TrEMBL record, chain A:
GO CC field: cytoplasm; DNA-directed RNA polymerase complex
Domain called DNA-directed RNA polymerase RpoA/D/Rpb3-type: residue spans: 16-246
Domain of life: Archaea
InterPro entries found in the cross-reference section: DNA-dir_RNA_pol_30-40kDasu_CS, DNA-dir_RNA_pol_insert, DNA-dir_RNA_pol_RpoA/D/Rpb3, RBP11-like, RNAP_Rpo3/Rpb3/RPAC1, RNApol_insert_sf, Rpo3/RPB3_RNA_Pol_subunit
Major location (coarse): cytoplasm
One Pfam family per UniProt: RNA_pol_A_bac
GO molecular function, one term: DNA-directed RNA polymerase activity
Cell location: Cytoplasm
UniProt-recorded name of the protein: DNA-directed RNA polymerase subunit Rpo3
SUPFAM superfamilies: Insert subdomain of RNA polymerase alpha subunit (SSF56553), RBP11-like subunits of RNA polymerase (SSF55257)
Keywords for the protein's UniProt record, in alphabetical order: Cytoplasm, DNA-directed RNA polymerase, Nucleotidyltransferase, Transcription, Transferase
Function per UniProt: DNA-dependent RNA polymerase (RNAP) catalyzes the transcription of DNA into RNA using the four ribonucleoside triphosphates as substrates.
Source organism: Haloterrigena salina JCM 13891
EC number from the UniProt entry: 2.7.7.6
TrEMBL record, chain B:
Subunit structure: Part of the RNA polymerase complex.
A GO molecular-function descriptor: protein dimerization activity
Family: Belongs to the archaeal Rpo11/eukaryotic RPB11/RPC19 RNA polymerase subunit family.
Protein's organism: Haloterrigena salina JCM 13891
Occurrences of domain DNA-directed RNA polymerase RBP11-like dimerisation (ranges): 13-87
GO biological process, alphabetically ordered: DNA-templated transcription
Protein name: DNA-directed RNA polymerase subunit Rpo11
TrEMBL record, chain C:
Subunit structure and binding partners: Part of the RNA polymerase complex.
Residues reported in the UniProt entry to bind Zn(2+): 7, 10, 45-46
InterPro entries recorded: RNA_pol_su_RPB10, RNA_pol_suN_Zn-BS, RPABC5/Rpb10
Protein name: DNA-directed RNA polymerase subunit Rpo10
Function: DNA-dependent RNA polymerase (RNAP) catalyzes the transcription of DNA into RNA using the four ribonucleoside triphosphates as substrates.
Catalytic activity: RNA(n) + a ribonucleoside 5'-triphosphate = RNA(n+1) + diphosphate
GO cellular component assignments: cytoplasm; DNA-directed RNA polymerase complex
Species in which this protein is naturally found: Haloterrigena gelatinilytica
Cofactor note: Binds 1 zinc ion.
Domain of life of the native organism: Archaea
């Protein structure tokens, strides 16, 4: 009864990737997408204790900014639901406080980006604060959302069916995503998303390939793309196992 | 995950699955519909209209003398296997 | 005030690129479109975050 899935990477980076999955139903693809957005927990600052804040922004505003800074999230099982990591920041003006100024007490939990300006401090202004980071889910707050702009599109099959009439003006034909041409996967950005650039003077037919989806996955830096996808699959698996156990009782 | 049966006969079952949302329910429903002895399966996440009920309720109808609860268990196994084989396929490519 | 840390729409961290963008496109005379492309800020939801932002810290700081 198990399906055979086939995964193939189209583009691949540390924080951004595109991959094709064959043999997946639309419902399951959507389940994976939703799990990547809402059900993969990440680290983020949740509570801030201000020692001194004489900047032009309120404590609450700065706490929000600190919360939105992505932190690297340690491997699964490393941190429990209510364990915290403390980060501190102490910057005196005139200077700008950056996310890179956050000092963490845990090597595994560090700001993923160093250049996020927190607050611009003028003469005699100072920011000193202590923050607690916790693990939580994307459904509870967007700062815990590890996946950014996660989505999928059908893989599209392009077939040349003939020539265009000789004296007809060529019309542009825009497609976005990834096309399959004789088994070769081509991102549409290679021909400026316009099929008339790739097949000049030809008449082409475009069709969705059933059950083949091209996922576009980007992360906020909390973990790699691979980590995000496998954790999303794990979260669905663990819920299925839980249901199985609950039904057996 | 807490389960609460709201209606149950030999061929029909309504069950509340607390704490889940579309992410899991839709995948589960899809797996139930692939089951050969399930004639109907649907879920309703019940917005506020139904007197504050917000947990999803799954309804299953079976044929061929299969207990709906068995079908649900099969579907859960199916979803689990799908998730595992997806992860394995992904890891093989990664 | 300060540049938003993340894009309101998609959640991408855009503040990371603010200072370079400000220096090159606002203070300098480079084309904002090219700067954004080079910084890798691709989607228009993220691009508008930087293009439409105005730093106000210098404006409000005398009134502290």
């Amino acid at each position: 009864m198990t399906e055979e899935y086939d995964v193939e990477f189209v583009e691949r980076g540390e924080r951004e990737a595109r991959f094709l999955v064959r043999g997946v139903t639309p419902g399951f693809a959507n389940g994976i997408r939703r799990a990547m957005l809402a059900d993969v927990p990440t680290m983020a600052i949740d509570t801030v204790r201000f020692v001194e804040n004489s900047s032009v922004m309120f404590d609450e505003q700065l706490a929000l900014r600190l919360g939105l800074v992505p932190l690297t999230t340690p491997p699964e099982g490393e941190f429990g639901e209510d364990e915290t990591v403390t980060l501190s920041i102490d910057v005196e003006g005139p200077a700008t406080a950056y996310s890179g100024d956050l000092v963490s007490n845990d090597e595994l939990v560090q700001p993923a980006d160093q250049n996020v300006p927190i607050i611009d401090l003028k003469d005699d202004q100072r920011l000193e604060a202590e923050a607690d980071a916790v693990v939580d889910y994307g459904k509870d707050h967007a700062k815990h959302q590890g996946g950014v702009a996660v989505g999928y599109r059908h893989l599209q099959q392009v077939e040349v069916v003939g020539d265009l009439p000789e004296f007809e003006d060529e019309e542009s034909r825009i497609v976005r995503g990834v096309i399959e041409d004789n088994g070769e996967l081509v991102p549409t950005s290679e021909f400026d998303h316009d099929l008339s650039n790739r097949y000049p003077g030809k008449e082409v037919e475009v069709e969705d390939v059933p059950n083949a989806f091209v996922f576009h996955v980007e992360t906020d830096g909390s973990f790699s793309v691979e980590e995000l996808v496998t954790r999303a699959a794990d979260s669905i698996e663990s819920r299925a196992t839980e249901l199985e156990d609950a039904v057996q009782l | 995950m807490e389960l609460r049966v709201t209606e149950s006969t030999d061929t029909e079952l309504s069950i509340e699955i607390a704490g889940e949302d579309h992410t899991f329910m839709n995948v589960l429903k899809g797996a139930l519909l692939e089951h050969e002895n399930v004639s109907a399966a649907t879920y309703d996440v019940n917005p506020e209209q139904s007197g504050g009920q917000t947990e999803p309720i799954l309804t299953i109808k079976t044929e061929g003398g299969v207990d709906p609860l068995e079908a649900l268990e099969d579907a859960a196994v199916n979803v689990r296997e799908k998730a595992i084989s997806f992860r394995e396929a992904f890891e093989a490519a990664a | 005030m300060m540049v938003p840390v993340r894009c309101f729409t998609c959640g991408n961290v855009v503040a990371e690129h603010w200072e370079e963008f400000d220096e090159r496109a606002n203070e300098g005379d480079e084309d904002p479109e090219k700067v954004l492309d080079e910084l890798g800020v691709e989607r228009y939801c993220c691009r508008r975050m930087l293009v439409s932002h105005r730093d106000l810290v210098d404006v409000v700081s005398p009134y502290q």
